[in-house]
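Hi all, long-time lurker, first post. I run a small reading group and we've been trying to get comfortable going from sequence to structure in the token notation. Rather than ask abstract questions, I figured I'd post a concrete chain and ask someone more experienced to write out its structure so we can walk through it together at our next meeting. Sequence below, copied exactly:
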Amino acid sequence: MPEKELSDGTPDRCGLVIFGASGDLTRRKLLPALYNLFLDGLLPPAFGIVGFARSAFSREEFRVLARGAVDEFSRRRPADPQRWPEFEQMLHYQQGGYGDAESFRRLREVQTNLDRVHAGAGNWVYYLATPPSAYREIGQGLEQSGLACSRMDAKPWSRLVVEKPIGHDLSSARALNDALSAGCEESQTFRIDHYLGKETVQNILVLRFGNGIFEPLWNHHHIDHVQITVAETDGAGSRGGYYEEAGALRDMVQNHLFQLLCLVAMEPPHNLGADAIRDEKLQALESIRPIRPEELDRQVVRGQYAAGLVDGQPVKAYREEEKVARESVTETFVAMKVYLDNWRWSGVPFYLRTGKRLARRTAEIAIQFRKLPPILFNRNPARPLDPNVLSIRLQPNEGVSLQIGSKRPGPRAEVSTVKLDFGYHSVFPAGTPEAYERLLLDVMLGDATLFMRRDEVEAAWSFVTPILEGWTHSTPDDFPNYVAGSAGPARADELLVVDGRRWGRL
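-- Answer (accepted) --
Happy to help. Here is the structure in token form:
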């Protein structure tokens, strides 16, 4: 990742406009992240935050919303009564419509006034914390009002931040990227995948390229397979309407899981600059072998949860969730087997799985090394030794462990499997910044390393879209096909069993 750390410097003087300021993302993530950056002294001097939304809030009401958000969701909650008044003075609010020219004219007046009062130098970050359907209108409003400049090197500068999903298939992703590029060039556009802001995700490249013991083994000669799991115990809940349109493949695989795959599979970049790293991630994405239509059912498994027990509590089926069709065929689980057709990974399968209402909440990457030959300590075919596994735990209990064989105490040469384990919270008890803290700071610094480039997004959609199209011609007749609180559909196990492998336990 970049050579700098979070504490290495302060961005240029600038301000931030949050479109969708009354929404859940702003309340749960953005306002708490900004408050923690403020406490750490990482915000620019005289920073200004303008909330923009349709909701009829006054400035004071927006500040009350922000205080409640920080009290509930900040990692340093509740708000410090000694520091909060200073942070509160940064908060402003502008009611308006995303397609209303007059609203953008008033926003320009607010920004001009803040630049004058706070000496903001005219630099602004525009965060689109809205549904993607509003991106085009907001982009046009920024362009037509003259608020967004069209060059990264312009002075003053402007930067545009957008959340996933970037489209729902390849053609819509291209159309949305075209709309985003109308007023801003690619280098000004920051597409957030919050997984890339997690400290443990950033540590993947350090683990690979900052340690001499791993990279020489990081290839098909020594690695048997890779498993990437992101499991949730939560159901669709209040997001049923969104989930009906998205499903697990769009919501998780196309972005989060593929980004993790890229960091595991990419070649060493020639430097730690944003483009060098993203070039190598793109190469990894473009190396993924397309799944042929006749192979779809053998390489991809989809599922939907039924009622069951999670943490001992009864939960309802997906089809019983709010705003979900009673005969819905939306997938809440996906497992797939993919191959990368390049020299490093030839013949090594990558197994990906993600789902809702599973037995345990976890995000983990497991690198399983090849089995030992059947000699010496592994000569008994009835009791083969477990292979070595390097596990990277992204959440919860963040850390890294290495599974090795060790002699059991006693007169016999018996081997037991043990783990060498590093836990983030035991080594770094002060805690780590939340993902959005790192990502917001990087936007202000102009560092795009942890953000998805247009070609990455479209390469991922190029792989996923044929699967989505194949599913439209083959409606599942077994939904729901896994019980809430389980490890997912039985067919997901078969993906590995036919290869003589098995998933790590959930």
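A couple of things your group might point at:
The chain has two domains: 15-163, 196-497.
The chain has 14 helices and 19 strands.
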